[in-house]
């Protein structure tokens, strides 16, 4: 793990870098919890629409069951040095009820349209309420770059 030689970024730089990654990256770790069965974590493809993360999973998956029972989720981009954590409440849309613009953008990004599949899928939208971003120990202080849904920089 790299912990030295990292210049501390200002909050505006962290926000810019975070938004760039949300647009360009493909995978996000999704952490959910069921009130009776506890925590669950899975990687999913995601799309950032400029305000929220969109993911898709099987309508009967553990993730789908969990977010219906407890909508609070945490998302993490898959880099343990350049950390980005998002937290928010999930909104669920069955594949035939998802807004067309979101489903179309998801299909365009991944070359796969769950609405065309035989099984039923659930689209999950998470508008972040908080975002934390840091690269190594020098950036632990000031890592919160969004609070209560408002960017701090």
From TrEMBL:
Record domain Pyridoxamine 5'-phosphate oxidase N-terminal: where: 25-134
Gene Ontology cellular component list: cytosol
Name this polypeptide is given: Pyridoxamine 5'-phosphate oxidase N-terminal domain-containing protein
This protein's record includes keyword Oxidoreductase: yes
InterPro entries according to UniProt: F420H2_bilvrd_red/Heme_oxyg, Pyridox_Oxase_N, Split_barrel_FMN-bd
Top-level taxonomic group: Bacteria
Pfam families: PNPOx_N (PF01243)
Key words, A-Z: Oxidoreductase
Single GO term (MF): coenzyme F420 binding
Organism: Streptomyces sulfonofaciens
């Amino acid at each position: 793990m790299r912990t030295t030689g990292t210049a501390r970024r200002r909050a505006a730089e962290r926000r810019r870098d975070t938004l760039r990654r949300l647009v360009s990256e493909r995978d996000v770790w999704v952490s959910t919890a069921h009130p009776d069965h506890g925590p669950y974590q899975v990687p999913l493809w995601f799309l950032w629409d400029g305000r929220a993360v969109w993911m898709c999973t099987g309508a009967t998956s553990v993730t789908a069951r969990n977010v219906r029972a407890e909508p609070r989720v945490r998302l993490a981009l898959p880099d343990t040095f350049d950390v980005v954590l998002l937290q928010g409440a999930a909104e669920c849309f069955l594949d035939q009820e998802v807004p067309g613009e979101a489903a179309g953008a998801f299909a365009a990004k991944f070359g796969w349209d769950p609405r065309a599949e035989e099984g039923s899928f659930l689209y999950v939208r998470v508008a972040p309420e908080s975002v934390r971003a840091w690269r190594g120990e020098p950036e632990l202080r000031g890592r919160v770059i969004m609070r209560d849904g408002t960017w701090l920089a």
